[in-house]
Design brief:
This protein has a domain of 204 residues: Rossmann fold (3-Layer(aba) Sandwich). It is 41% helix and 16% strand. Strands 3-2-1-4-5-6-11 form a seven-stranded parallel sheet, with helices on both faces. A two-stranded parallel sheet has the order 7-10. A two-stranded parallel ribbon has the order 8-13. It contains ten helices and 13 strands. The protein is globular and about 60 Å long. It starts with a strand and ends with a helix. The mean pLDDT is 95. The protein has 335 residues and is an alpha/beta fold. Helix 6 crosses helix 8.
Length: 335
């Protein structure tokens, strides 16, 4: 039986990867600061531990795993990454995790390790035109990410490639473009745009109003979790290192994404534009390289993923409201 280690196995992408690999009959170990928030882990073994601690990394890598997936990072959406208030933690925490995990895998002679980089490492100067951003893999240099999160991702890419060059490790690197779907963070400040909009629309009364940051003309592409996992596994099991984009090339403005969410919900709402952290003006996954190397690229329409995500978040909100009503009802009964 093949064995895999999922770093960040309690997070959104990591917990979904655990489920995917269990479907393939892997023995799976997860490691994270916490268990998955929305459903029990399906991992065969799960370590609650801080990967900033080298001892925890050595404990997690106690054997020669067939595949290691490194998703663990200090990250979030625009409200977390672009305020500047979390820059030191983002760079320190994620950098420590990657250095420790690479060292632990090297000492255990683990060869195949996947690293989840981000499209945030692309230069800001190529993403100023909302309608024509440049995000091909060869456009990464001269480097100038628009956030410390992007700079850390760029550093860690080079760190993984250095371990491959010097120690013969078989690293695989993907630059993710806004992964979303059910069982992802949908409130609290770390959520990304699809989840935030689903939450706002679900909580709004028909004919009401929701707030969005900026003028709504900034553009992005968003990739549904199932396609993220498929691309990640195909890359990891290929004989090609990357780095490569894993993302959708269906670019939309944030206003259009909000309108799509309203149509899914069957609501008509007004958009109130307010100041807020925005990131680059435009970003879209360039999928020419992944298609040429792996003969695959994401193909699911954005609307399909948004429908599934909206239904799940709406259910989360309804379940919470029911719990609140039950608590209030119980309090009145006791009184």
């Amino acid at each position: 039986m093949k064995q895999a280690l999922i770093c960040g196995g309690g997070g959104f992408i990591g917990s979904h990867m655990v489920k995917r690999l269990k479907e393939e009959n892997f023995w799976v170990r997860g490691v994270d600061l916490k268990y998955p928030e929305f459903s029990p882990t399906e991992a065969d073994d799960f370590i609650i531990g801080d990967l900033r601690d080298p001892h925890v990394c050595r404990e997690a890598v106690d054997r020669k795993f067939d595949e290691v997936y490194q998703f663990a990072a200090d990250m979030g959406g625009a409200g977390f990454v672009f305020t500047g208030e979390n820059d030191a933690n983002i760079m320190h925490n994620s950098g420590m995790i990657n250095m420790n995990m690479l060292e632990a895998c090297h000492k255990r002679n683990v060869k195949r390790i996947f690293y989840s980089s981000s499209a945030c490492m692309y230069p800001e100067y190529n993403q100023l035109d909302a309608d024509h951003p440049i995000c091909s893999e060869d456009s990464a240099y001269p480097a100038n990410p628009d956030s410390e999160y992007g700079w850390e991702k760029l550093f860690s890419e080079r760190l993984y490639l250095a371990f491959q060059k010097n120690f013969g490790m078989e690293v695989r690197i993907a630059r993710y473009h806004n992964i979303f779907g059910p069982e992802g963070t949908w409130e609290g400040g770390r959520e990304k745009a699809p989840a935030a909009l689903c939450r706002k629309v679900a909580m709004a009364e028909d004919g009401g109003e929701i707030e969005i940051w900026g003028d709504g003309k900034q553009t992005r592409s968003f990739l549904y979790i199932d396609e993220c996992l498929e691309g990640t596994i195909r890359l990891t099991r290929s004989e090609w290192t990357g780095p490569v984009n894993i993302g959708s090339d269906e670019m939309v403005s944030i206003s259009r994404l909000a309108e799509m969410t309203m149509r899914i919900a069957g609501k008509k709402l007004n958009l109130k534009h307010i100041p807020g952290p925005l990131g680059v003006r435009g970003r879209n996954s360039d999928n020419r390289l992944i298609y040429s190397k792996l003969n695959w690229k994401p193909s699911q329409p954005l609307r399909e993923g948004m429908k599934k995500t909206y239904t799940w978040i709406e259910g989360q909100i309804q379940a919470r409201e029911n719990e609140d009503e039950n608590r209030l009802g119980g309090a009145r009964h006791i009184a």
